[in-house]
Specification:
32 strands; 23 helices; 14-stranded mixed sheet; single chain
Length: 816
């Protein structure tokens, strides 16, 4: 069995205040673009909106023409004549092995508008090219010559340019795989419910997709290069007062990303999207008015918080979306009729997108009526068969618009919730059961690694009271900590429900019978078993890049890897445990009791002491006390209100180990680094068992020290008259629990005391403990004389001392 030492943290100051460790909260500050904003040529901005659609067709377009149908919905919008002059709807197409826009729009123009084939050929000269990434602009005033010779206008998509070509060999391979079945729009409409959801990607086996694909040379809508190029195109050539982007395709939530290219099966991950948006912000561009996902599962709490620096409003779905996606016609009409209205912003646009969704997918809504009349050829009341089909596809259809500035403001409380959830996770089996329930009760999809945030909150509220009742009076410290964690989780959840709900501008939560109808319309990461697999698009290790507070990520890591606190390796760095220490005002001591079971998992009980001296903060001591594993331990620690130095110099930094020996005596060692006769190494001082004085016990040189002349200098057991000593001083930025070497280097600045020269008068007699550190059978004390530097002891006022307490946990995990 391997042992890995980690640290559980609690901070207690001399004023008895509990200090909370910092949390990893993404940057939520509003960007100030000041000087850099001048990079944008505001004179070129359109006065209205630019609405960019990154339309990655995939099998949604290939099999059902869903992307082309959405383009038709846009073109059907009734807009003011001048709309296209003052606004831009820009569409990037690609990611599908076949497009059907020419078929779908031609049929509409000829059947609904009465145009001839000759007229249609002018409006749609050719099909969208499936072998390329291309850019189109919607023009509601596209000109064409009518059969009577007159010039007329009609809505159309106008080809701007081609961005990139797919690898021809890959195009041929995949198109050969799928064959060349003719697209039959009438058949698609007849079997409209067969369009299904937007969560089922390409049916081609992923093993057939090339693992090495040159994104620099060939097209790939899932690559950073092409989403960056699309957004740059909007900013450079189609800038407007209001900017919105719509990522159209399949969605896999925070773990899967969005815009899966059918050729490469590569999605845009949250990290990649953040990368591009961060670059855009650094180039001086303002936040988007709206970022929307016309895709499944993309309303995710962590995603919204991570995107908050780059957009004002987010629109996405908690659940899977039906293949038709957003209903664009009324959305574009609202935008077109309000583009010059200063009060029409991303919030109102987001609310209009959600309302259109409700009107389209709601019970007895536009889609139900259309399918009943055309696909089922029904009349009068709906049949039971039709209602069952409608319920299966439409009941849980959802969409919400989120105020990203408000959702970002909930991040600190969510981080605290993660801290408290981690404390509760000491109750390992019960916590695991709760998290398993989250995946199995009201699941969003099979094997997905996210759950409704309401589901997590509900199940904790349901189970926590019973766990609190059982654990509160436990004789075991860790279970009392868990009870406290549960209690604090309940308080956190109450506040989070209110604040997260208030961030939602508008939400459609499905039919009244939907299991999600009363939910907060967003998910939160909770991994399925496969989330730890390195082959996944996103595994639990990636989550650390997006987590809202480290502690929540740690809980998820343990859950996904089936780790437990008492036997598996896990990094508990910076866990802000809130343990209540007994404080005796008369003695000024803190007392901490640890039962036998808990002591078996603890390597050291530790404390850092910081002193404010002459306006500067110094680390003066770090104490380690090893527990006794044969019974209950009682630790006492008093803030060290003094420091050691030479003359009136700066405080020496010592770290200290204490061992319980016979008759409850404490064997205490202090260690510090410094120079002995110009050689750098570690000094050891042992405490006189009869007094508070520390005397020299040994010097151990750094083996890499260039000043070592012979091996005798590596270990020095006794000092000699004339030896010269300089000891290390650590000035600190703040009082904190230092876990790693990086913590020390980031928080402290090293210097040294004035030189001390050993004299004959430095000979001292002291009582030492000469047996093994835990040997209690016989007496192990004797007198000894040594040369030792005489330290000056400098007193420090209580209010100038900070004590930071914690303990090291022995965490075991199997070999390999």
């Amino acid at each position: 069995m391997k042992k890995y030492l980690t640290k559980k943290i609690v901070t207690v100051t001399s004023a008895l205040a509990i200090a909370i460790s910092g949390v990893n909260v993404p940057n939520m500050n509003n960007y100030s673009y000041a000087a850099e904003a001048q990079k944008v040529n505001v004179l070129r901005k359109s006065p209205g909106w630019t609405f960019g659609i990154y339309m990655c067709g995939n099998n949604l377009e290939q099999e059902g023409g869903s992307a082309s149908s959405d383009l038709l919905e846009i073109l059907k919008a009734n807009v003011p004549k001048e709309f296209s002059e003052n606004n831009n709807i820009i569409v990037g197409t690609g990611g599908a092995i076949a497009w059907h826009f020419k078929d779908i729009y031609s049929n509409y123009l000829m059947e609904e508008k009465g145009l001839s084939e000759k007229e249609v050929d002018q409006i749609i000269p050719e099909e969208i090219d499936s072998s390329k990434l291309s850019l189109y602009r919607v023009n509601f005033n596209h000109k064409y010559e009518a059969d009577d010779g007159s010039i007329k206008t009609i809505p159309a998509i106008e080809h701007i340019k081609d961005i990139a070509d797919y690898d021809p060999a890959l195009v041929k391979e995949i198109q050969d795989f799928y064959g060349s079945d003719e697209f039959d729009e009438a058949e698609v409409e007849k079997n409209k419910f067969s369009k299904g959801k937007r969560d089922s990607k390409n049916s081609k086996d992923e093993s057939d997709v090339p693992k090495e694909y040159d994104d620099e040379k060939y097209a790939n809508m899932g690559a950073v290069k092409y989403i960056r190029e699309f957004l740059n195109e909007l900013d450079t050539n189609y800038a407007a007062e209001h900017m919105a982007i719509d990522l159209w395709n399949h969605g896999g939530g925070i773990t899967g990303g969005v815009c899966y290219d059918q050729y490469t099966e590569n999605p845009i991950t949250l990290g990649e999207l953040k990368q591009v948006l961060k670059e855009r912000a650094e180039d001086g561009y303002e936040k988007y008015d709206l970022i929307g996902y016309d895709a499944c599962f993309m309303s995710n709490y962590e995603s919204w918080v991570n995107l908050a620096p780059y957009a004002k409003v987010g629109v996405g779905a908690l659940t899977s979306q039906y293949g038709d996606g957003w209903y664009y016609t009324p959305v574009i009409e609202k935008l077109a009729n309000n583009y010059s209205n200063e009060s029409y912003d991303g919030k109102r646009l987001g609310a209009d997108i959600v309302k259109a969704h409700k009107d389209y997918y709601g019970y007895d809504g536009i889609l139900m009526k259309d399918v009943w009349e055309n696909a089922y050829e029904g009349e009068g009341e709906y049949s039971e068969e039709f209602l069952d089909d409608s319920r299966y596809y439409l009941e849980d259809e959802m969409l919400c618009a989120v105020d990203l500035e408000k959702i970002a403001q909930t991040a600190i409380k969510f981080s605290e919730f993660g801290d408290d959830l981690f404390k509760a996770s000491v109750d390992e089996d019960s916590m695991k059961d709760i998290l398993l329930q989250c995946s199995n009760v009201k699941p969003l999809d099979r094997d997905c690694s996210f759950v409704g945030i309401s589901n997590l909150f509900d199940l904790l509220e349901e189970n926590a009271p019973e766990r609190i009742k059982e654990l509160t009076d436990s004789p075991h410290t860790q279970y009392r900590i868990a009870a406290q964690g549960y209690e604090e989780c309940l308080e956190d959840i109450k506040e989070l429900r209110e604040s997260i709900t208030s961030s939602i501008i508008s939400a459609y939560n499905g039919w009244e019978t939907s299991r999600y109808n009363d939910s907060i319309a967003m998910s939160v990461f909770l991994p399925a078993e496969y989330a730890g697999d390195e082959t996944a698009y996103f595994n639990v290790n990636d989550y650390m890049n997006y987590t809202i507070g480290d502690s929540y990520a740690k809980v998820m890591y343990m859950f996904s890897h089936n780790l437990t606190l008492d036997r598996d390796m896990f990094d508990f760095k910076d866990l802000p445990y809130d343990i209540h220490y007994n404080y005796d005002k008369k003695s000024g001591k803190y007392t901490f009791e640890m039962d036998e079971e808990s002591a078996g998992y603890v390597n050291n009980f530790s404390g850092y002491t910081y002193a404010n001296v002459d306006g500067k903060k110094y680390v003066i001591n770090c104490t380690y006390t090893k527990p006794f594993t044969g019974g209950k331990n009682t630790f006492t620690m008093k803030p060290l209100c003094e420091y050691l130095t030479f003359g009136k110099g700066k405080p020496v930094y010592f770290y200290e180990n204490n061992y319980l020996v016979e008759n409850d005596a404490i064997l205490s060692y202090r260690y510090c680094h410094g120079f002995l006769n110009g050689v750098y190494g570690e000094f050891t001082f042992v405490k006189d068992m009869d007094s508070d004085r520390y005397v020299f016990d040994g010097f151990y040189a750094d083996k890499d020290n260039e000043n070592i002349v012979d091996e005798d200098e590596l270990v020095v057991d006794e000092l000699k008259v004339g030896d010269k000593i300089k000891l290390e001083v650590l000035e600190a930025d703040k009082a904190m629990y230092c876990v790693t070497a990086e913590d020390y280097s980031n928080n402290t600045k090293k210097s040294y005391t004035d030189e001390y020269v050993i004299k004959a008068s430095d000979m001292v007699e002291y009582t030492e403990h000469v047996g093994e550190k835990y040997d209690t059978d016989i007496e192990h004390f004797s007198k000894k004389k040594v040369l030792s530097p005489k330290f000056d002891v400098v007193k420090v006022e209580d209010n100038d001392i900070d004590l930071v307490l914690g303990y090291d946990v022995c965490v075991f995990y199997p070999e390999g």
